[in-house]
Amino acid sequence: MARLFYPAAWRSDVVEDLFGFPVSDPYRWLEDSDDARVRDWAAAQDRLFLTCREQWREKAFWASSVDQVSSFGVPEPPTVRGSLMFLAEQLRGDEQRRLIVVDAEGDRRVLVDPVEVDPSGHTGLYAWWPSREGGRVAVQMEVAEQPGSDIVVLDARSGEVVDGPLPRARNTSVAWLPGGDAFYYVSRVPGEELAPDDMRLHRRVRLHRIGTPWQDDTVVFGGEDAPDHYYGLTVGADGRRLAVTAVAGPTAQNDVYVAELADPEAPRFVKVVDGAAVGARVLPRFLADGALLLVTDHEAPCGRVCVADRHDAGPAAWRTLIAEDPQAPLDECLVLDGPALARPLLLVARARHGTSALTLHDLADGRLLTALPLPGAGVVSCLRASVPHGHQAWFSYCDATTPPTVYRYDAALGTMEREAGTATAGHAPRIRSRAVRCRAGDGTEITLFLFTPDEEHQGPRPTLLYGYGSFGMPMRPWFFPLAAAWVGAGGTYAVACVRGGGEEGQHWHDAGRGPNKHRAISDFNDAAAWLVETGTTTRDQLAIYGQSAGGLLVVAAAVRRPDLYAAVVAEGPLCDMVRYERFGLGCTWTDEFGSACRPEQLRWLLTYSPYHNVTPGTPYPAFLFTGAVTDLQTGQAHVTKMCAALQHATAGDRPILMRREPGTAHAASPASKERALTADILAFAAEHTGLASKTTCGSGSA
């Protein structure tokens, strides 16, 4: 392959002295996206990408494959309130999900269709919160490349707007009071009240009464002493109590506050859980008697369920209801306490090495009553029940070959039925799924999910290895259209459950965050090496793929071991870990990665920061960096700076490319753009690993 001529990128002599460390930053000028030089350079990169893409073989094949394995329908369980059922549906050809309401007679109507709001398809349905009685629903839309989202309130039967918009409510939580005339929500402080360079969140919990201007909404919680906090809201079934969880960014611990609602506009909060003292996550829910049901990893890295008096919720007063299973992290639990039941029940979802199990327990003492049968060895998610009291539970199930399917469990009858779900546009390929264990360099066992064609094959296959390894997010053997298309073409798709994720509980997360982030990267490289050593693939057939923090993982892994990979795909990655706090929401992620403002933590960051570990004269693998033109979450400078650094440094002839997408967000795009991106990722990975469609293979051998 001939070496490419890359758009010229000026290398400045910027070197900062940070606590005695000389830190070079030759491409800092690329951070200013408004600079004409940056725009011209990025436009040249766009042209280079399009030129290279034209040379990829079988672009049409991959586009068709992705279309055939993409799923359409109802992927998530409904939200049931009163006699109404609310669900999101996306049909083939829809750019975004639509909100559907179903009444007691089974009649369906479209409540919100984002394309009617924005025919371009760039406005999507982000979240919805029906009132307890179901008469009203608060709806939040998301517009690509815009930092805030508004809430509007609709009449659930007519679809008419009855209130709103309430501005700046992105990443909010909504808790309705009984009667449907008021709710608590979270919104950011207006920008004009902040300093021009203040990137903090500045969120407040407010009470909104239907029909009143948002300017009159009372702030009931939050202040200047907590500029980076996220808040979760829960109101008890009787509407007499409010619980607020407060967490500074995606940290591993949170505070819990509880208030009596004698006056909803002036709740008096009592701090019942001190996150700093407990050092754990604690998620509260009110039981019918006013006690607190607590899901926590305190002294239980894989999670346990406790009960506590709302007035004395310190750890010493917690009564364990469902004990920790060290081999099966707790995913979710759900209370079923409808009048049709002989006694209140607790439905618990766990995952053992990625495979879900559902068990039913007596809520009074946690006693196991039965294990519920599942359709297969797959993943259960999104447990939901009617509010405030119900005896039915809905959940989503999927596995490597089954797209998301909604099931309903009736605890009164003891029955399980398929209720809704999704289907692929074409025939999904037959996929063999299995979990294997490999050892990291320090002897720690790592789980790898392997997805292969359901056919006998001798010898290595082109392989696409995925990883994430941050924020305690567990990897599971989900149905993934990208994986299905890759395996359908004859490749192997693998997922590495590295430290930093949540596959083995909180201790697994702790082992790969902060000063231990290097372990996540080493785990990933060790998993890749295992794939080569076992003959699953070869170095020339191995591509790696990661998104967001997973993009950091794969880029750091490839910079550390460029000899191990043929190609790297990083979607919206973090790359400059010295300045990541200055971009997007990076300032809220210091608990996960560390801060360059502290000497010891700067040392951690410099050891693995991809941008600072690029070595000139190294034959790097092929790289494809993808991302939104305006990425409000991670910031687009990671992509531009890393691309320029690698283009300058590489001594090989494999391309370093950047694919930018206008009119999209960090993780939300119109469906057609998502499919086009997936097709490009697969075509790029196939081009550099030698994966060809069976049609091409057949014609070549004829």
TrEMBL record:
- Lineage, top-rank taxon, reads Bacteria
Looking up PROSITE patterns in the UniProt record yields: PRO_ENDOPEP_SER (PS00708)
Q: Give the catalytic activity.
A: Hydrolysis of Pro-|-Xaa >> Ala-|-Xaa in oligopeptides
Any signal peptide, and if so, which residues? none
Entry's EC annotation: 3.4.21.26
Q: Does the keyword rRNA processing apply?
A: no
Tell me the ranges covered by the Peptidase S9A N-terminal domain, including all copies. 11-415
Q: Name one Pfam family in it.
A: Peptidase_S9
Instruction: Enumerate the InterPro entries for this protein.
Output: AB_hydrolase_fold, Pept_S9_AS, Pept_S9A_N, Peptidase_S9_cat, Peptidase_S9A, Prolyl_oligopep/macrocyclase
Matching PANTHER family? PROLYL ENDOPEPTIDASE
Which family does the record claim for this protein?
Answer: Belongs to the peptidase S9A family.
Name of the featured protein: prolyl oligopeptidase
Q: Which organism is it from?
A: Microbispora bryophytorum subsp. camponoti
